[in-house]
Design brief:
Helix content is about 45%, strand content about 15%. The chain is of the alpha/beta class and about 240 residues long. The model has no long low-confidence stretch (mean pLDDT about 95).
Length: about 240
């Protein structure tokens, strides 16, 4: 849904509510994870998006703040069995305070046209997360897909009961790395028709791009810890 006012008219606090600050690099030390989670909280981001091993630290830091926890699951490849994905999601949700869970769709299956399997895989994770009140975002890794596959994957995610569709992991190395392009986001929006929320992720590094996606009506964006102050215009 398009916002009531343009992005360039919004306060930093309003803009920050569009951001899931990404704190996902596997080489981060505990001190670095703590630093970037705290920065996300200080900026007023909607969530900090973290790896499962960081849940205890994130719970401690986010407690009593307006910034919530988004956890990634079976990330960044999405190639575990459905049973394994469900077990992972259940474990994380049971730890409490998990606002949202970002799961990677098996995009090899998407490219193979295995739509029934893709839907079943996503639905199983949605079913377990929704028991705990945790919303599910489904990552397609759109740089690996055609526009037609993005359209179909959006429909499949809606049918599976997901809460968001999302463009990319930020860790794809098999081809182009364009991430949340205007074309892909518009494709998702046109297909969704308000039936599911849209999260853009990958290559959102300039305020111009950030503002453009907000004005289009995007719901959320995954932004790297280095780029958050840039897109918010914080010196």
């Amino acid at each position: 849904m398009k916002p009531a006012k343009k992005a360039n008219e919004m306060s930093v606090k309003e803009l920050a509510k569009y951001i899931d600050q990404s704190v996902l690099k596997p080489e981060f030390t505990q001190d670095e994870i703590k630093k970037y989670i705290q920065e996300g909280i200080d900026f007023g981001c909607a969530t900090v998006c973290i790896n499962p091993a960081s849940i205890p630290l994130a719970k401690e830091l986010c407690k009593g703040t307006d910034t919530k926890i988004c956890i990634v699951c079976d990330f960044p490849f999405g190639l575990s069995t459905t049973k394994s994905k469900v077990m992972q999601a259940e474990e994380y949700c049971q730890m409490g305070d998990i606002f949202e869970l970002d799961i990677v769709a098996n995009y090899g299956w998407i490219k193979s046209g295995m739509w029934k399997e893709v839907e079943k895989d996503i639905k199983a994770v949605c079913d377990v997360c929704h028991k705990y009140g945790t919303a599910v975002k489904v990552i397609f890794e759109t740089d690996a897909l055609s526009i037609e596959q993005v359209k179909k994957a959006t429909e499949i995610s809606i049918a599976a009961g997901a809460d968001f569709v999302k463009t990319s992991t930020g860790f794809y190395t098999g081809g182009k790395n364009e991430g949340a392009t205007v074309e892909v986001i518009q494709t998702m929006m046109d297909t969704a028709k308000g039936r599911i929320k849209i999260k853009g992720s990958g290559a959102i590094r300039t305020q111009e791009h950030f503002f453009k996606l907000i004005d289009m009506g995007i719901d959320r964006m995954g932004v790297g810890y280095k780029s958050t102050p840039v897109v918010l215009g914080i010196k």
